[in-house]
Amino acid sequence: MAFTMNNKDFNKVLDQLQKEYKVYAPVNLKGKGTFSDTDTVRYGQVNIVEEIEFNKKSNFSPKEVILPITQTLFYFTENSVKEPKVEDKKILIFLRSCDIHAVKRIDEIYLRNGFQDSYYKTLRDKVKFVLMECEHSFENCFCVSMNSNKTEEYSLFVKYKDDRVFVECKDAEFKGYFNYMEQCNVEPKFVESNDVEVKIPENIDQSIFKNEMWKEYSERCIACGRCNVVCGTCTCFTMQDIFYKDNRNVGERRRVWASCQVDGFTDVAGGGSFRKEKGERMRFKVMHKVYDFKKRFGYHMCVGCGRCDDACPEYISFSSCLNKLNNAVEEVK
Asked: Which residues form the 4Fe-4S ferredoxin-type domain (predicted)?
């Protein structure tokens, strides 16, 4: 079923939803961009539809809502361990097709990879999706090449245009909120083509891991890790024990995002390191996204959102790297 209403009526729906849900969506943060007097778009809680940024790609993915950048796993004292309380409210996230696909990848790692992460599952079980459409491809996107440009995995679809809101309701749980709204016909438009196209090789030979193409990134990459931070499918983390100043035997253990591109990520006891060269780190990231993950789960990890290309200060393009990988594999054959 689909409905249409003015923005004021939809805001009343949001107000009702917030009694049960925390509502997250991309918002435009004025003056919070990387450079002076620039804006950035990232996820935050919203109260009205006018706060939601429908026309720009978010600089950060919605991953941080269900996999927090810093998450306290438990508090400890000399004699006890206690997990933090979990908020009762459920979570409603406005996001695009590629990001819904990205959450599926995170689910594979945290829920179906030989174990089930209880902290992630607690949050994930509370999440429902509101689809935002992409009528046109954004810069650096290659979602069509990664088959993440379309999805049916959403509870609501919301389109906002000229102070009118159009809603497709697929989840029976939400139909009661729209009982008195005007019915209409609406369905999401999905991107059919991108300016950027990517071809990923099949049957990759192990010799590609020693190919000369990776040396380029040792010279260009500065190991800042921004590509991992904005990525919707990166899942690596490190652990931190925080000891309180007033009692050094009391504190908390936190899970914190980590990056496979930064110095020290692969350091081990005794002073060793698995990947000292930045080109080796780039190789690891690329092959994990389009080779290792697919061998295990049957599809590629990367969803083609293009955020890594948007964020890189050295203009390293992940999509270009994938095409270089394809060319290198073709040459070997």
From this structure: 211-242, 293-321
